[in-house]
Amino acid sequence: MMWFNIRSYIASDMLKLYSLIVELALRTRSIFYYNPSGLECNWRWLQLHNFTNHPQLVWNSALPFVHLNRLFNNELFVLACLDADLARNELTGLLSSLSHLTNSKVLIELVGNKSVEPRSKDSLVRDILLQFRKKNMLNVVIYFKSTSHPLFLYSYDAFPQFTLRQRGFTKSRGDHLYPRQIENVKGYILRVIHDFSEPNTIIYYDANGKELIRGSLWDFIANFASTIGARLKAIEPTWPHGRHLGDSYMLELTKNNSVDIGLFTAQVDERYSNRFYQYSFPILYASWCVMMPLERPIQIPAIFKHILCTGTMAFLMIALICYWLSSLLALLFVCLCQAQLMFLLIMHPRQLPIDSFDALLASDLRILGVSSEFYLLDAAFRARYAAAFRLTSNVSEFFELRNSFNTSWAYSITSNKWTMMEAQQENFQRSVFRYSDLCLHESLPYSIILDEDSVYYQALMFYSMRVHEAGLLEKWVRNSFYDMVEAGRMHLTDYSVTIEPRPLRLPDFQIPCRYFVFGIIMALAAFMIELLRFYINVFLENL
Q1: 378 part of a folded domain
Q2: Taking the model in full, what pTM does it have?
Q3: Could you tell me the residue range of the domain that residue 58 belongs to?
Q4: Rounded distance, CA 299 to CA 504, Å?
Q5: What residue ranges are annotated as transmembrane (predicted)?
Q6: Is 203 inside a domain boundary?
Q7: Could you say which of 14, 104, 113, 406 would form a disulfide bridge with 84 (CB–CB 3.0 to 4.6 Å)?
Q8: Is residue 162 assigned to a domain?
């Protein structure tokens, strides 16, 4: 027995702890054994005999294993054996190795310093755990290897402030050894910065002058804060309202710990691939397409032109040439033309829809877009269809025109924001815009911005899944229309143009009049030819 020289109560505690750790390790996929000084820790025996069915990585170097996060995910159990005299130095390599693996469970055995005072032990453990707190690693337990003292486990409470915990070992579940602290942060402040992107975040003032924030993304993050027991604090942007900033600014704010979450929907950008870990699990999926004004009704002169077309004239000529058919076809021709004309006048057909970017180029309609968003598009697409766009750097102007359903332009819009526009059109007499098939991007994942080792990353991921499963995000997006109305950004106004029936007027008969005049001229010409032919014959007979 390896503990023959250990007091019985210590051996009993160690056996209980081993049993618990084996149970915890079996729930994970892989084990990382970190022993830079090659010390004889108790875990070496455990690693050699109890985890033979698990993938294991043994690291006996003080240099960090910087590519560990490429081989394993957060379902990693870490057993570390550190020299108590060199723990602060050896800890640097361990923390660097566990970069982006903040949810891993870590158990550290400190060897040496047998005669050190308890107060010094507490100071050493506090320094070590504070380093883990800075890296947002909450699942850390430390104990000192000893053959003569009771087994004490050291950990810490991260919320609402750092608190060192020391407890004697008792038989318990792994959840007690590694409690899920993120499930209740006890009123810890969650700092969130928004980007003035309506309807994701809508900022306005009530009758008492108090600032209020609404919107689909704000509802999303406010509910998340409530779920984990955090107090939400809005950090006001330093840039003016109406200015659109890209990913880089939000990435920098979260990286330097100015804020916890940047409430800015973004896609993982190749330009910032080295900051991949700062993008959250996708919180929504949306297509980025063109919001097109509905095609205008065909004008009345065009309806007459459609009926009195070349085919109609040819049909009429056949009836005139074949005299015996004229009596049969005359009534049929008149009835068909009259029926079609009346139908088209009552139910105005619309112009052919624009179904491609080439058709858009050929029309007089253009897409109004934001300059910074346009340059995110593929370079080949921009080169080919740049003439189809009119760009503005004033985001407020863009939102104002789009929210007022100004039909002078088509607009770029994501599918989730179109949900809000569609909700408003339900109050119209008729729809004004449609969500077209002209898409700039199809079904893209959108994330928000976090610190690369954010303590909220995993909790936010599971929360996002539950929100999607419950359909809450779609509800918040749809309700953002009413938030916009309450904030005065949108109004329950019918922007559709009412088409009232009216009697035909003289200008509407331009095409029939032209054909009538043309027919009279042709008849007069034929009559004159007949007269000329008759008088020529009379003249020739009198010679």
Answers
A1: no
A2: 0.75
A3: 8-179
A4: 12
A5: 515-536
A6: no
A7: 113
A8: yes
Distances (CA, A) of 96 to 88, 141, 294, 464: 13, 18, 57, 29
Q: What single letter denotes the amino acid at residue 34?
A: Y
Per-residue pLDDT of the chain (543 residues; tens, 9 = 90+): 344 344 444 456 677 777 777 777 777 778 888 988 888 887 666 656 666 667 778 888 888 888 888 888 777 888 899 888 887 788 988 999 998 888 889 999 888 765 556 677 888 899 999 999 999 999 999 988 765 567 788 999 999 999 999 887 665 555 578 889 999 999 999 999 887 777 888 888 888 888 888 888 999 999 999 999 999 998 887 766 656 566 777 888 888 888 999 888 887 766 666 677 888 888 888 888 999 998 877 766 666 666 666 666 676 666 666 666 666 666 666 676 666 666 666 666 666 788 889 999 988 899 998 888 888 888 899 999 999 999 988 888 888 899 889 989 999 998 888 988 888 888 888 888 999 999 988 888 888 989 888 999 999 999 999 999 998 988 898 888 888 888 888 888 888 876 666 666 777 677 777 777 887 898 888 888 888 888 888 777 776
Number of domains in the chain: 1
SS3 119: helix
Is 168 among the domain residues? Answer: yes
The structure tokens listed for 67 are 């590519």
Cβ(203)–Cβ(211) under 8 Å?
yes
